[in-house]
């Protein structure tokens, strides 16, 4: 007959045994999970080309969603390239390899040193003080420009940039506001990331420096947030743009190889002009990718308004327009893929597209295509130019459209990101 103390010892051993088995199983399970996640990482880092990209990344997302602890990819192929890195602030220049679309070769200041902006003032536009944004952007050497702290920069005159510059607002809350804004003219290789640009005004009719060796007279500006003229390899990513005197982004005078991605556009009438004028035929070579942007509250028209060139409009979220979303004149080629277009309630403004001042007999020949777009609240896209596939090839940048059902998650962090040091952005 077993004593009660022997029974208790037996029970204790039994409990201990169960505990050990549980702990062992738990460790095995965790190791399984880790090796699964390693495998996933290896698969993710395999190089993939544009034709397989969309399918692959969709598969990856499904997997990532299941492995909750790994999830930071949301189907945004540009962000997925760098945003999961908690050490983004030590690897800032990695961003330069993450561009996609026609502007994917914009390296900005990748090959230069860092320049830290410490002074938000703009006292002297001919001899700018070292430590100011103006002093940084006019230099001849490549520079990766970052900000010491949060700041509001009220520019007295347009900020005339020089080639090979990145303006990287990550880690600070940087506003360029209530004054002049950004001019990209006759240069190449610029990346602008993570700025709030708003309430831009007309300035000018004065002398402004554009490089260490040159300053000259500048006429009255239009009051655009970002004005791109005769420039190439430009990438505008994750900015918020609103409420300016003229356009939010204008691309004119033979500019090309441009990507405008992940931006948040709000409160503005004429949002984006791509192409100088109907008679400016140098814009026939223009290629612009408009991807992953959120066209939000308070917008009226021109998202974008195109002329002559080739425009790839991919996976954008259009939640507000008063008049129309995509328009143009002078035979532009428009390739609209995987966007979500939500029409306003106004019954006369349901059409996504607008051909400006052109007879139907003429615009019937223009190549405007909608593929996989999601049309909400009665929105409709009028395509034209069926069958002219050669021109569509020129309007297909290497950014494979994802299903429009993913636009919500892809654009959920459009605009500047709240990046904190030591954490993924
Ligand atoms: C992309 O990859 C697929 C599958 O690996 C291959 O069949 C195809 O030829 C590749 N396309 C290009 C343009 O490299
Ligand atoms: C430019 O400034 C000059 C003098 O500073 C003035 O006479 C001229 O009217 C101005 N031009 C415009 C277009 O405002
Ligand atoms: C300067 O701007 C004014 C006002 O926008 C315009 O009337 C004038 O033609 C411009 N001058 C030059 C030289 O471009
Ligand atoms: C509806 O849209 C049409 C066409 O853009 C415009 O003329 C009209 O003013 C709009 N109506 C309202 C109530 O906004
Ligand atoms: C390449 C790859 O990893 N494919 C997988 C992605 O996830 C889906 C859904 O779980 C699988 O069906 C694929 O085989």
Automatic annotation (TrEMBL):
Pathway: Glycan metabolism; pectin degradation; 2-dehydro-3-deoxy-D-gluconate from pectin: step 2/5. Gene3D superfamilies: Single-stranded right-handed beta-helix, Pectin lyase-like. Transmembrane segments: none annotated. Keywords: Calcium, Lyase, Metal-binding, Signal. The keyword Lipid biosynthesis does not apply. GO terms for molecular function: metal ion binding; pectate lyase activity. Residues 1-23 form the signal peptide. It comes from the Eukaryota. SMART domains: Amb_all. Binds 1 Ca(2+) ion. Required for its activity. InterPro entries: AmbAllergen, Pec_lyase, Pectin_lyas_fold, Pectin_lyase_fold/virulence, PEL. One of its GO terms (biological process) is pectin catabolic process. Residues 150-347 form the Pectate lyase domain. It is an enzyme of class 4 (lyase). It catalyses: Eliminative cleavage of (1->4)-alpha-D-galacturonan to give oligosaccharides with 4-deoxy-alpha-D-galact-4-enuronosyl groups at their non-reducing ends. Belongs to the polysaccharide lyase 1 family. This is Pectate lyase. It comes from Microthlaspi erraticum.
């Amino acid at each position: 007959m077993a004593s009660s103390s022997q029974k208790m010892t037996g029970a204790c051993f039994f409990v201990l045994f169960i505990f050990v088995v549980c702990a062992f199983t738990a460790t095995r399970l965790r190791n399984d999970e880790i090796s699964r996640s390693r495998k996933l990482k290896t698969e993710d880092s395999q190089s993939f080309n544009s034709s397989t990209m969309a399918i692959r990344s969709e598969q990856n997302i499904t997997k990532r969603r299941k492995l909750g602890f790994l999830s930071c990819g949301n189907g945004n192929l540009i962000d997925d390239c760098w945003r999961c890195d908690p050490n983004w602030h030590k690897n800032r220049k990695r961003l330069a390899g993450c561009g996609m679309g026609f502007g994917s070769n914009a390296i900005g200041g990748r090959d230069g040193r860092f320049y830290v902006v410490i002074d938000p003032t703009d006292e002297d536009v001919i001899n700018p003080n070292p430590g100011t944004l103006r002093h940084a952007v006019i230099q001849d050497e490549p520079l990766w420009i970052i900000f010491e702290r949060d700041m509001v920069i009220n520019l007295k005159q347009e900020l005339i940039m020089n080639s090979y510059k990145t303006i990287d607002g990550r880690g600070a809350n940087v506003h360029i506001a209530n004054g002049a804004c950004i001019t990209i003219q006759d240069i190449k290789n610029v990346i602008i990331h993570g700025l709030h640009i708003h309430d831009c005004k007309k300035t000018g009719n004065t002398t402004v420096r554009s490089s260490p060796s040159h300053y000259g007279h500048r006429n009255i500006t239009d009051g655009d947030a970002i004005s791109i003229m005769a420039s190439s390899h430009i990438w505008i990513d994750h900015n918020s743009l609103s409420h300016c005197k003229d356009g939010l982004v204008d691309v004119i005078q033979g500019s090309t190889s441009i990507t405008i991605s992940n931006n948040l556009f709000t409160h503005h009438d004429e949002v984006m002009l791509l192409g100088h004028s109907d008679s400016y035929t140098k814009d026939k070579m223009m290629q612009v990718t408009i991807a992953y942007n959120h066209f939000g509250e308070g917008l009226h028209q021109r998202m974008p308004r195109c002329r002559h060139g080739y425009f790839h409009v991919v996976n954008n979220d259009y939640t507000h327009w008063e008049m129309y979303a995509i328009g143009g004149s002078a035979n532009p080629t428009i390739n609209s893929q995987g966007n979500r277009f939500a029409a306003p309630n106004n019954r006369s403004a349901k059409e996504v597209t607008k051909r400006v001042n052109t007879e139907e007999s003429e615009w019937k020949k223009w190549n405007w295509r909608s593929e996989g777009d999601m049309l909400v609240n009665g929105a409709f896209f009028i395509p034209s130019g069926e069958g002219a596939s050669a021109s569509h090839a020129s309007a297909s940048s290497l950014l494979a459209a994802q299903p429009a059902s993913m636009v919500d998650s892809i654009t959920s962090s459009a605009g500047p990101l709240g990046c904190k040091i030591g954490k993924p952005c």
